[in-house]
Design goal:
The structure is a homodimer. The first copy, chain A, is of the alpha/beta class. In chain A, strands 2-1-3-4-5-11 form a six-stranded parallel sheet, sandwiched between helices. Chain A has a four-stranded parallel sheet with strand order 7-6-8-9, sandwiched between helices. In chain A, strand 8, helix 12 and strand 9 form a beta-alpha-beta unit. In chain A, helix 1 packs across helix 2 and helix 7 packs parallel to helix 8. The first copy, chain A, binds a DNA duplex through helix 2 and helix 4.
Amino acid sequence: MNTQKVTIADVAKRAGVSKGLVSFALNDRPGVSPETRTRILAVAGDLGWKPSLRARSLSTRRSFALGLVVARNPEVLGSDPFFPSFIAGVESILSDRGQALVLSVVPSEEAEIRSYRQLVDDGRVDGVFLTDLRHDDPRIPLLTELGLPAVTLGRPDGPSPFPAVSIDDTPGIAESVAYLARLGHRRIAHIAGSSTMLHGTRRRDAFEAALCTAGLPLGQTIETDFSVAAGSDATRRLLTREDAPTAIVYANDPMAIAGLGVAHELGIRVPDELSITGFDDIDFSRYVYPPLTTVSATPVVWGRAAATTLLALIETGAADDVNLPAARLIIRGSAAAPAHTRKSAT
Amino acid sequence: MNTQKVTIADVAKRAGVSKGLVSFALNDRPGVSPETRTRILAVAGDLGWKPSLRARSLSTRRSFALGLVVARNPEVLGSDPFFPSFIAGVESILSDRGQALVLSVVPSEEAEIRSYRQLVDDGRVDGVFLTDLRHDDPRIPLLTELGLPAVTLGRPDGPSPFPAVSIDDTPGIAESVAYLARLGHRRIAHIAGSSTMLHGTRRRDAFEAALCTAGLPLGQTIETDFSVAAGSDATRRLLTREDAPTAIVYANDPMAIAGLGVAHELGIRVPDELSITGFDDIDFSRYVYPPLTTVSATPVVWGRAAATTLLALIETGAADDVNLPAARLIIRGSAAAPAHTRKSAT
DNA sequence: CCGGGCGACTGAACCGGTTTAGCCAGCCTA
DNA sequence: TAGGCTGGCTAAACCGGTTCAGTCGCCCGG
C-alpha cells in the first residue's frame, strides 16, 4: 500500500501547479481562481491527501492542541467527577475542530509550574485551561510571562489578561441556606473546601452572607481540602459537639456523601435529625440514601464554553468573558425540618 | 528578550562545527570525538538551546506523545475513578521521559474509531493504551491495520500482536464469594458489569466458578453497564424478589454504593440483613456506612506499568507482557453472617 | 497606444531539526 | 611507500508544509 506517502508536492504535480498554490487553495486564501481551487481540491481528494500536521506545525509554529494541567492528588481527583465531565465537554468541541487535548496530571505545585514550562518549551499546545483557580494564582503571571494563551474557569481575584468562563456558584449556596432556614434550621454549619481555592472561599463567603440574610447567627465552618476523607473527619467533629448543627452545607458532593456515612454510623438519622446539602450533583448523589439535596453544576457545558472561548482567543487574539447560567439547588431527600420543629408541628 | 530564538544552527556556528555534528552530539551518536562533544554540549548549555520538538517530530516522524481514547458516556466516566488514577500513574512515567499524553473522550464506538484514525492520520501519538477491553475487540485489528503500537490493559480474548499489562481480578471475586460463603451465606447474587467488556464477563465467570467451588447453587446474576443507575436498578430488582439474596457481589464499587442506598431505602440493614461486596476500592468505599468490603485495584500502578511497557515497545519494537499482583479482598463492614445464622448463633 | 494595476501563479526561502554521502587526515599493514 | 581502513567531520538533501517576493498576462483609463 502507498501508505500515507502523498504529500503536497504530489498534489501540486498532479494538478499542474506549484506547491504554494496548493497550500493557498487548502487554506482558502485569496489569489487562487475558483476553477483552479476546485481542481486542486479535487486532485487532493482523489489522491487522498492529508496535509501533515507535523509539517504544518513546524512552519506555522502552532500545535493545534490545547492543554490541561491538573494539580491534585490522585485521590481527590478520583472522587471528583468534575474533570471527566469537563473534559468530555472540551472534547466535544475539539474533535470537530481538528484539535487535540494534551493532559498533564501532576502531584505538586512545583511540578505544575514545570509542566507549563515544558508545555511551552516543547510547543505542545497553543493554549491552556486554568482550572481550580487559587488566590493570587501564580499561574496567571507565569502564563503571561510565557505568552501562552489561557482561559480561566471563573474570574481570578487579581488582574488577569485572560478571558474568564464562569458559572456563579453563590446563588446555589444561598438557595441551600435559605431553603434550610425556611425549613426551620437555626444551627447550620458549613464544611468548606480549601481556602487556597477561589471556589472554596467563595462558597464559604456565600454561606456566611446567606446566613446573615436569613437573620441567623454565624454558624460553624470547617475548612477542608475538598477530599472525602476530610469531609468525613469534619462531619464527625461537628456532630460530636455539644451544640451540633441540625444542618450541614457541604462545599461538594463527595464530602456530603462522606458526611452521610458518618451520620449513619453515629446513628443520626438523615434528614430527620440532620439535614445535609451538597454541591455539584454528581452521579452518586441521586443514588445514596437519602438522595442528596444538592446544587447542580454543569461541567460538560463549562467544558464546551471554555473550549470555544480558548479557540476563539487563539485564533482571533481576543475573546470575551462568558457567564454560564448559575448553578441551582436541586431538592431531593437529604434535608427536612429539624427534629424539634417537626415535633411541635405534629 | 531573545525568546526561544536559539536553534541548532546557532549552536553549530558558535561551536564552530556543522549542524549535523551538533545533532550527533545531542543524540549521543558515534562519530563525535569526546572533546568536541563536550564542547558542543557546553555551548548548547550556554546558549540555552532546547531542540525544537516540532522540527524533531517532522524529521523523525515521531510525536513523543502517547494516546488514550476513552469511549464511555460521561456519567459512567464521572463516577469511575479508574481513569483519573490510571492517568496519574501514566503521567508519573511520561513526565520524566519528555512524553505527553493526548486524551480523547468520545461518546460512541464510531467516534472512537474515528478518533484512532485521526490520531494516526495526524501523527499525534506514537502509541496508545487500550483500556476497557471488549470481546473480539475491534480496536485490535484496527490498530494493527493502522500500524499503531499499543498496549492492552488485560489480555484480549482473541489474537493480539500487542503486549498486555494485566492484573488478575478473578482471585478478588473468588475471595469475596468464599468469604461470604464462610460467613454462612447461601443465596449470593452478582450484579455484573457489561457482558461486552472482558472484565464484565470475567468477573461474572469468576463469580460462578467460586460459587461452584463453595458448593453453592448458582445464584442470580444481573447484567448492567457498570453505571451507578444500573447498579441501583438491579439491586432493587434483586431485593424485592421472593427469594431475595442475603448477599450481593457487585462488579464495581459505584454500583455497590448505589446498592447500599437502595438497601437503606428499603429498610434492609447492611450488613445484618444483607451483605454486599464491591470491586475497585474507590475512595468513597471507606467512607460510606457501613464501609464497603471490596477488592482493591491499583490503577496507579497499572498506569505506570502500562506506560513503561508502551514506551519500551515504541523504542525497541518489542515488549513483554506484564502481570501485576492480583487484586485482593479488603474486609470492612458491609458483609457479615446472614440474619438466620446470626440468630441461631446468638 | 502606453502605463498602471490587479489577479493568478511560480520559485525559492524558510521552519529546525535528522540523515546520508562523501571528504580528509592519520595510522596500520604489506 | 603505496594502499586500505577508520574516526571525525562537513555539506547538502530531506521531512512537508507556509510564505513572500516577484513574474506574467490581461484589462482598463487616459
